[in-house]
UniProtKB/TrEMBL annotation:
PROSITE patterns: G6P_DEHYDROGENASE (PS00069). Belongs to the glucose-6-phosphate dehydrogenase family. This is Glucose-6-phosphate 1-dehydrogenase. Its EC number is 1.1.1.49. SUPFAM superfamilies: Glyceraldehyde-3-phosphate dehydrogenase-like, C-terminal domain, NAD(P)-binding Rossmann-fold domains. Pathway: Carbohydrate degradation; pentose phosphate pathway; D-ribulose 5-phosphate from D-glucose 6-phosphate (oxidative stage): step 1/3. Residues 267-561 form the Glucose-6-phosphate dehydrogenase C-terminal domain. Residues 112-209 form the Glucose-6-phosphate dehydrogenase NAD-binding domain.
Length: 568
């Protein structure tokens, strides 16, 4: 397990493990699954279509997967799970037979599906560049963008080049590295359901892969959330994926699991004696999971309007954080052990009721001479859309540890700030000797642990402290671990970590299908009710703190949103 605390690249990396030979490759392995270091050739598909049903269609048609698998397996049978298993065991044989891991023979081909979109531009290409810069990609790699939009290779490179940056501490040869990286990026335009278009792509990939000598390798598909719209469509998607892929080839990505402070949650809890004893209903009064963005959909409403904020953020990002926060101690840091614990939490959750949900939608607002648009001003959104751009919810985990503790979630677009945080509010000190020093508002004197996921990562603990002086005045002060002050290294983007993990076959931070089922079981009934009853979202002005209903919801459970206090 020590491998997890080591720096990923170069010490825990594809390239160093390749160069380090077979033994070292496995020494770094934290799970029984095979690592990328074994095969000499591989393909990774990054699936990021706007509509997850597209993914289902894509997989059902078997275009990407069956095509590749047929070419990769020497003796392909039917497209069955058994085939994939025999494929896996072939890889294992390779490893056991002592594949020498010659770096020159290694190649990875990455296809970014939906490459013309926001995610590809903003996160995936920059993350791949960062991995390239850090020498975390194999020597021979090719990246293909794939989408319906017409683009030449040069146009893709131009689009991508605008979003590439080097880390502040890594400016050396930056533009040269960018040029080298862009030369490895190509584009192929095609439909998502066209076998012919994907075959053309496959031919192009093969051309690029000529320098790799091995006839086998692995194929992994990274699928973006949201995985369906509800339990039923998610099951269809899972079934379609499993028709062609074994579960260990499917990487359901939730990039919040790759954020530094979310990864740190388990460290904070399980590597420090002081927190774990407090981590229960006995000491914790409520937990708040808060996501906010200070911009609206801005032209991306086409994707968003079909999903809404509950499916876009709550059912995945915030719920995953909740599961990690609340799980019991896993047997080990192995992917399956962690996910076993997360799924238990999700299955212990009380079904979410409509009365425990508040939905909102932003409206136009003018400030400082600038008029900010309504959600429905977005040209890609129907004028009468009832899709929530804000939601707050009160959730409960009906198990011995968390019985009765409200877990409050809040997520919204076009709010007053951008941020994501976890707030843990502790109970009042019983029989507090200093009660009279606090006045009547005991809430202001409760301890609060804040894990600020972004921006400006920090962990701080609010404690009561004596204000220095001759009198006896107390104030609430922060014990503050401010990352920028403590660590000089820039924090990698979540996609860097997760793409590297997928390349290395590390599944710890990806969603297993039973976790997904449990997550949908929790939200599907309430989502259906919201839609059937055509619940009208509460309006809130663009740039505000969200609808007032969120305060009433919290107050019903005796909670005050911590992010709205003046001193946060
Ligand atoms: N944007 C972000 O920061 C993040 C996004 N995601 C996820 O990534 C996925 C894509 O989001 P994002 O890139 O923001 O979305 P965009 O709308 O910006 O881009 C999606 C791309 O997919 C293609 N596409 C496929 N099917 C459709 C369709 N039915 N309608 C329109 N376009 C379609 C389009 O390309 P073309 O028309 O050329 O085929 C488009 O460029 C979503 O599942 C989202 O949840 C996850 C994390 C962060
Ligand atoms: O998954 C998504 O996340 C982004 C926010 O990601 P962040 O890392 O920038 O916080 C959100 O804008 C998008 O709507 C959603 O699909």
């Amino acid at each position: 397990m020590a491998a997890f605390s080591a720096t990923k690249c170069p010490s825990y990396s594809y390239s160093s493990s390749i160069n380090g030979g077979q033994k070292q490759r496995f020494a770094f392995s934290s799970s029984s699954s095979l690592r990328f270091s074994a095969p000499a050739k591989a393909k990774v598909f990054l699936q990021s279509p706007r509509d997850s049903h597209q993914a289902a269609v894509l997989m059902q048609d078997g275009v990407v997967v069956s095509e590749v698998i047929h070419k990769e397996i020497e003796t392909p049978k039917e497209n069955s799970k058994d085939d994939l298993l025999s494929f896996t065991s072939t890889k294992e044989l390779d490893v056991k037979a002592g594949f020498d891991g010659n770096e020159n023979e290694s190649t990875v081909s990455i296809t970014v599906v939906g490459a013309s979109g926001d995610l590809a531009k903003k996160k995936i290409f920059p993350a791949l560049f960062a991995l390239y810069y850090e020498d975390c990609l194999p020597k021979h790699f090719t990246i293909y963008g794939y989408a319906r939009s017409k683009m030449t290779d040069a146009e893709l490179r131009n689009m991508v080049s605008k979003t590439l940056t080097c880390r502040i501490d890594k400016r050396e040869n930056c533009s040269e590295k960018m040029d080298q990286f862009l030369k490895r990026c190509f584009y192929h335009s095609g439909q998502y359901d066209s076998e012919e278009n994907f075959s053309q792509l496959d031919k192009k990939l093969k051309k690029q892969e000529l320098s790799a000598s091995s006839g086998n390798g692995w194929t992994r598909v990274i699928v973006e959330k949201p995985f369906g719209r509800d339990s039923e469509s998610s099951a269809v998607l899972t079934k379609a994926l499993k028709q062609y892929l074994a579960e260990d080839q499917i990487f359901r990505i939730d990039h919040y699991l790759g954020k530094e402070l979310v990864e740190n949650l388990s460290v904070l809890r399980f590597a420090n004696l002081i927190f774990e004893p407090l981590w229960s209903r006995r000491y914790i009064r409520n937990v708040q999971l808060i996501f906010s963005e200070d911009f609206g959909t801005e032209g991306r409403g086409g994707y968003f309007d079909n999903y809404g904020i509950i499916r876009d953020i709550m059912q995945n990002h915030l719920l995953q954080i909740l599961a990690l926060f609340a799980m019991e101690t896993p047997v080990s840091l192995d992917a399956e052990d962690i996910r076993n614990e997360k799924v238990k939490v999700l299955r212990s959750m009380r079904p979410l009721r409509l009365e425990d949900v508040v939905v909102g939608q932003y409206k136009s607002h003018s400030r400082g001479g600038v008029t900010y648009p309504s959600y429905t001003d977005d040209k890609t959104v129907p004028k009468d859309s009832l899709t929530p751009t804000f939601a707050a919810a009160a959730l409960f985990i009906d198990n011995a540890r968390w019985d009765g503790v409200p877990f409050l979630m809040k997520a919204g677009k076009a709010l007053h700030n951008r941020g994501a945080e976890i707030r843990v509010q502790f109970r009042h000190v019983p029989g507090n000797l200093y009660n009279r020093n606090f006045g009547t508002d005991l809430d202001r004197a409760t301890n609060e642990l804040v894990i600020r996921v972004q921006p400006d990562e920090a962990i701080f603990l609010k404690i009561n402290n004596k204000v220095p002086g001759l009198g006896m005045r107390l104030d609430l002060s922060n014990l503050n671990l401010h990352y920028a002050a403590r660590y000089s290294k820039e924090i990698p983007d979540a996609y860097e970590r997760l793409l590297l993990d997928a390349i290395e076959g590390e599944r710890r931070l990806f969603i297993r299908s039973d976790e997904l089922d449990a997550a949908w079981a929790l939200f599907t009934p309430v989502l259906a009710e919201l839609e059937e009853k055509k619940i009208i979202p509460e309006s809130y002005p663009y740039g505000s703190r969200g609808p007032v209903g969120a305060h009433y919801l919290a107050a019903r459970y005796n909670v005050r949103w911590g992010d709205l206090d003046i001193e946060q």
